[in-house]
Amino acid sequence: MLNLDWATVFLTMGIHIIMALSFYLAYSCGLISIAQAGFMAIGAYLASWMTVNEGWEFYSACLLGGGAAAVVGTLAALPALRIRGIYLLLLTLGLNEIIIVFFYNFEPTGGAEGFYGMKGYTQNWNVWLLVAVLLFFFDRLERSRVGRAFEAVHADEEAADLMGVNLTTTKVQAFALSAFIAGIGGAFWAHFTRAMEPVNFNVFVSIEFIIFVFVGGMRTYWGAVAGTVLLTLLDEVVLRNITIAGVELRGMAFGAILVLMMIFRPEGLLNRDPFRFLRKRRAAA
């Protein structure tokens, strides 16, 4: 523990928060997506290609990668408009697999061998600056007309429709914004690791982001932050490289945490915005 690289731990935590927030945004509109790792892959590969082979500036490449992921997310949202529940999970699972198989067979980005050569543009300062920008965005979104539409659709689609909420526009917005954030998160991740393979974006990576949000609390975006901080510290400081009888303790511990949370606190660690009382005081003043 004394030899732990805390700069790397905090950088990893920041990227995990970005990805957890991307899942939360879709979930806030009632859309459970396990394609976040696929959107992450699109942003990672495209941004890396543009910086390595085309000489693009890093932040411009990040925006392009996020935009490409948003386009795919928009296209994915169209069939998702008619389905929900387990069928939506299957649709996003299939989408994630399509994206991964594409990169496995796309030779310009290295195929199964992966893509390399990125420079270390990702630093703690720009990762956490992005986290701060996203938290400000979520704070404003939550109190905006669009955010209230997301909440209404999440609570009851039929009631939201009767109140005049455009379900098509609202769901497409949620999916596109969620994919955009995931794409930018992927671009930052790629320029942190400087090497990637398609296997780095499999469905289990998406499930890990869902676990962060589930443990932290799915009723507020602060839950995504709390769950990510807790589980990333637990993973990096305690569980990494620890095995019992040849079995990684990490997977067992995450499974046990999920079971205990479902039994004792199914709503997650946070069931409301922890800073709501400050806003009420400001409003009263």
Structure in words:
The chain has helices at 6-27, 36-53, 58-80, 86-105, 124-142, 145-155, 157-162, 167-193, 203-216, 221-239, 249-264, 276-284; strands at 115-116, 195-196, 243-244, 247-248. It is mainly α. The protein has a domain at 6-202. The strands form two sheets. The chain has a two-stranded antiparallel ribbon. The protein starts with 5 loop residues before the first helix and ends with a helix.
How would you summarize this macromolecular structure in one to three sentences?
The protein is mainly α and 285 residues long.
> Based on DSSP secondary structure assignment, what is the total number of beta strands?
4
Total helices: the number is: 12
Order of helices and strands: HHHHEHHHHEHHEEHH
Q: pLDDT under 50 segments (min length 5)?
A: none
**Biggest β-sheet: count, sense, barrel?**
2 strands, antiparallel
Overall 3D geometry? globular
What oligomeric assembly is this protein in? single chain
Per DSSP, what share of the residues sits in E-state strands of 2 or more residues? under 5%
- CA radius of gyration is 19 Å
Class by alpha and beta content: mainly alpha
Helical residue percent band = over 70%
What is the average per-residue confidence, as pLDDT, rounded to a whole number? Answer: 89
Summarize the SSE layout with pairings:
Blueprint: H1 6-27, H2 36-53, H3 58-80, H4 86-105, E1 115-116, H5 124-142, H6 145-155, H7 157-162, H8 167-193, E2 195-196, H9 203-216, H10 221-239, E3 243-244, E4 247-248, H11 249-264, H12 276-284
Antiparallel strand pairs: 1-2, 3-4
Helix pairs in contact: 1-5, 1-8, 1-9, 1-10, 2-3, 2-4, 2-8, 3-8, 6-8, 9-10
